[in-house]
Write a structure and sequence with these properties.
Oligomer: heterodimer
Strand order of the largest sheet of chain B: 6-7-8-3-9-10-12-11
Largest sheet of chain A: 8 strands, mixed
Number of strands of chain A: 12
Radius of gyration of chain B: 21 Å
Low-confidence stretches of chain A: none
CATH superfamily of the domain at 3-81 and 224-314 in chain B: P-loop containing nucleotide triphosphate hydrolases
Structural class of chain A: alpha/beta
Strand order of the largest sheet of chain A: 6-7-8-3-9-10-12-11
Order of helices and strands of chain A: EEEHEEHEHHHEHEHEEHHHEE
Shape of chain B: globular
CATH topology of the domain at 3-81 and 224-314 in chain B: Rossmann fold
Mean pLDDT of chain A: 89
Helix content of chain B: 25-40%
Strand content of chain B: 15-25%
CATH architecture of the domain at 3-81 and 224-314 in chain B: 3-Layer(aba) Sandwich
Distance between the termini of chain B: 33 Å
Distance between the termini of chain A: 25 Å
Chain lengths: 324, 325
Amino acid sequence: MSRDVLIQVNHLKKYFNVSRGILGHHIEGTVKAVDDVSLSIYRGETIGLIGESGCGKSTLSRVLLGLISPTDGEVIFEGKKMNRKALKEFRTRVQMVFQDPYSSIDPRMCMRRIIEEPLRIHTSLSRSERMDLVLPLIKQLGFDEEDLKKYPHEFSGGQRQRIGIARAFILEPSFIICDEPVSALDVSIQAQILNLFRQLQREKGVTYLFISHDMAVIKHISDRIAVMYLGRIVELASKDELFSDTLHPYTKALIESIPVPDPRIHTSMKPLEGELPSPINPPSGCPFRLRCRHAMDICASSIPELREIKEGHFAACHLFDGRS
Amino acid sequence: MENVLTIKGLKTYYHAKNRVVPAVDGVDLVLRKGEMLGIVGESGCGKSTVARSVIGLIDRSYTEIAGGCAMFDGQDLLHLPSREMNRIRGSRISMVFQNPLTSLNPVYTIENQISEVLRIHTDLDKAAIHARCIELMEMVGIPDPEARLKDYPHQLSGGMQQRALIAIALACNPEIIIADEPTTALDVTIQAQILQLIRSINKEYGMSMILITHNMGIVAQMCDRVMVMYGGVCVEEGPTERIFDSPMHPYTRGLLKAIPSIASDKEDLFSIPGTVPRFSYPVARCRFADRCPYSNKECSESEPELISFAEDCSVRCFRTIKEGI
């Protein structure tokens, strides 16, 4: 893997105001959905982003995609700072595959129109030229030419997800954000789609940001993994490193919570105490400290920064203050 | 061990516009006292319909119980008058559903919803009901029960809502609890908490439970015995360890190989080709034949029977047992 940075995220923040009253003038609090996230994504890699619901992983992906603008911080894509002017060009290079294959494709468009829509918006190709691009792609995804006339309701969930994938790939983007693309699918279909993502990456050299709440899926697909908790990245490392030498207590808890599909291995299922605190009034200091077994005095007063503890292995925890 | 529930040949058919969908097409099932039985399968395999048929929560306007019986305490649940069934449902057999927010009524407090079960099924007075509510909230691990009882469902987190739902299911000390995907809507760390709770209810109170799930990890960690369903029938059944150690049916084998696992690190996952087909009545072939690597002519001409090959172990396949595939 080359270490050529495709996307550089610097101190990205996205805050939402929670307001009250009919006109929404009274601002009650701020949700720090993404709070000071810095991240480099290298060309050709798959970076997995894992966290529980409400941790900000979807908001982060939306900011990266330019669907919402950040409160602060910057996103540099292929050397250029992303801003609203460059958005249209940027979108030809960055695409997204959504979670729900039922609501993310238009039920009133046939498959051909769904897949060629990005080409109609971003290129001036003729109908036959567009078809020259669509046909080989859908064949690769296991469809026939006949299927192009069909409408979404004629396809199963797995097939619909493939249509969503075809739509994302048609412009040959360099970066694709996959927001929980397999969590709505059955196990046997999930395996097909995961294999398809890998195969397409081998052939087209695309970079993925793969979001999931399923650690086993993330481990299977990713090269590097970022763990998010309450708007912050708490640990970032290569896949093997993350599992062989887990540093952050939250990552440990996440891994321990997964029921292992082997009755001889007893998952401790020693659950983490408590639940995700309210993002409106997060605890002072380390956002994880209220559920952490190792919480110390310092955790309440200062927010641990994401630091490189070992080469390529970052963690945000005061337990490692002495190490670096 | 004593059987608390015996289902024989259950057939539940949905009448669609121009076809009959055999959602459950001849399922036999035995639930023993104090055990945790898992029903596992993909969406549309009929696992929820089995549960709903037993507990009488199917809409008879388009659903037909086309055959079978479900014996519970000497009565056939499938053919009980609804008045009798209402007396059993919620008190002697209760159910925990997947989505806690839609299962709870948003306009009533938690106390109201737990005590409703007690008001209907017991003759406790007001004070006793309140005391029982608090006791139940403590059993399911909700902190500060007195205050939480006054809350409305939206004021609780997803994990707490699911605990409240379990409290409702436990209210009358039922003999059987059916949990239909109880943790699918929850995050992993909360899922672990709820699974721990379900296991302790099963062990401490000796309650018999049916756990319906699509997650093989949950089956492995929680269940004593497993039934694997595909296309409305049971394709394989056995003790959990046997199913995971030596799965017999090609579908079970495929399912186990298709899950990405934390422990293994293969380049590509094994995947079962094709998709779950939609069946119309009558089905006169092996339901898995189209996707099966071993299927032959016999498989697409007649439907295999469920063959028992060891104590508690059976499989519905022509070839695995006979030919030792």
